[in-house]
Amino acid sequence: MSAHPIADSNPAAQPPFSAYKLGAAYDEMFAADGSVRPQFEALANRLTLLPPEELQRRQQACETSFLHQGITFTVYSDKQATERIIPTDLFPRIVTAKEWEKIEAGLTQRILALNLFLKDIYTDGRVLKDGIIPRSMIYGSKHYRREMRGLPVPHDAYVNVCGSDLIRCEDGKFAVLEDNLRVPSGVSYMLANRDVVRRAFPNLFRAQGVRPIDHYPRELLATLRALTPVREDVSIAILTPGVFNSAYFEHAFLARQMGVELVEGRDLLVNDNVVYARTTSGLKRIDVIYRRIDDDFIDPLIFREDSALGVSGLFNAYRAGNVVIANALGTGVADDKAVYAYVPRLIRYYLSEEPILDNIETFLCREEKPLAHVLANLDKLVVKAVGESGGYGMLVGPHASKSEREAFAEKIKADPENYIAQPTIQLSTAPTFVEGGVEPRHVDLRPFILHGEKTVIVPGALTRVALKRGSLVVNSSQGGGSKDTWVLSH
Amino acid sequence: MFYSIRHITRFRYAAPVHESVMEIRMQPRSEGPQALRSFQINTNPRAQLYAYTDHFGNAVYHFNVLRAHEELRIESQAVIEITRHQILPEAADILEWERYNGYNLNHDHFDLLEQSKFTQPSAALSAFIREKNLEKPKGDPLTALKTLNTTINEAFDYESGVTEVHSPIDHALSEKRGVCQDFSHIMIAIARGWGVPARYVSGYLYHRPHSKDRSGADATHAWLECYLPSLGWVGFDPTNNVVAGERHIRAAVGRDYADVPPTRGTYKGPTEHELATAVSVEPTQAPVRHEDFLRVARPMSSPTPTPSMPERLYHQQQQQQQ
Fold it and tell me: DSSP class of residue A30?
């Protein structure tokens, strides 16, 4: 075997990085001049010392381990496979202590403001009377639940589990792209990625001072427990739509980790306004439901009557305070992509503070001027349907064909209120193992925020990777991959 | 004036069902000229009743029956008092339209100005509006709403069995026939189109002996209320071509029927069931005389024989408002 380059020369010029091409985007590992950013130095030196075959072997071990654990994510639009693993990448993404400090403060601020907003629109509606946000945007949202009006929730915390999507822009600043306030998923991949990558680089991992994230299930359990006044024998259940749901693996994983029941709607029943689980030893009262079912499907008596996933009478038990549902119902109205544009204003309105994390500039197609701008610049913009998530119903202008753009323009004109547009942001890139080497791929960052009696953000995140070269779509539901995310303690 | 209202609802199933869950919106509201004096609900099988007030201020009762049963019967009884209604002027003044500008902007009537599930605009509705000259009127809104009330009354024949409880307005518009639920939805759709906040009212109507009312005497009734800035909520009953008054007993208000069905429920078991209802409204000095007055709304559909019924959730058929 030929001698490998010595470690003290610039790793950027060595395999596996010799063919690494920097683009216009901010790169997580390399500065514009090609030098390695300090937080990546130890990792870079280590990798350049490993023979390529060894790297490949470890990457394969990593993938095999995922397969064996059964970590999967269904891709609905994929005709060939109904189930596929979410490809994980051996190459961690590193976030410095200073960067994390700002992310943590920014997300804490944001979750506070969003919860105050939810409380407001379900009680006094001060923000509507003061004209901060148009009534039509709230009452016209399909996620606004009139049934929640005036209904108190524990600690005024509507969103108990939030997964916020951050991206790093060309200037290196983190900005919030999306708040996921309904049933965000992905935290199990954050934990599983850590597991396999720690095994691949045990020594490096210890030497780097990576902050632990293994306590996430414990923190989640503590958050859920603190939502109920019941103190002894608190009984918690995760309500899943079932095995065909794309995130079923995660529901089962979290139930196992927390030692709580995993139930489907048919496993629950409501009697005399109290929720019970059918167990082999009879009915067992349930105090807290961590639901992973959308509002619409949770109670066929109140919401969609064709729902076979929910529990009839559940909402009335909830209303009576006999069970807690986390997240509360009706949170989706605040993560609507049109409401997103107002979040900086909401932070100022409720907290009298300047937003710590930036928003992405957003054009509301419901407004005349922005609409004209959007239609004239479709080739430069990303257009999204306001109520959708998971990368469905969107157009990435620069990557779309002329006919695709024309067809989308018709959709926008037919229903402008349903669309927003944002400039195409070059998400930052991070080195990623691909067939035959290491190449830059676009990534985002999804930290998970727990909010109830207090706010807790485990120092970690799911870094999602757009696996296709040049692609900016990272959603797992659109075939994206993921990376372990190291938050450093110093 | 005192009225006693008795309302019986009976579900019969082709085979035993279980886990019935039911919500009831039957309790007359206590506000304005109408005051609730007593109210009770009995169910058979017996069940523990719970209640809450929904976001429209309607009293909602709910209960469940876990064990197997072949029949579910709900009987509600209310006594209410209606004091004299406000006397409406012949017409509002023409400035009334302008008062809406300030009013609609500053009040939470968004939901009653936006079209809702059963009042969605359609080609048939537009055609009806054109045909009857029902574009936004030039004159004052009270006169216009009275005219609209009459126009709808005259344009449709009252006939039950043509439309169903979940029929969109297009059904009645194309058939030129329907029941109070349809007429109210059509008038709400047009009033909202004019920028007049409008809401659906579910309730009961006292039919005087020998009255010319078209609505069925043995069913719940529905009409609508429109907001006039200088007069408040004014009730219109297009079914009977009257302004709602001392014979109209309000039980629940909402955007449309979907918000206020007298019963809404689910159960597990075979799908075939039969719904029967009976309603009586009497001045209390009159003796309450209504035994055997259950009316079968729809015959039991002939069950297709299935050896083992799958455990599925079914929705109770709801009662159409006539």
Answer: B
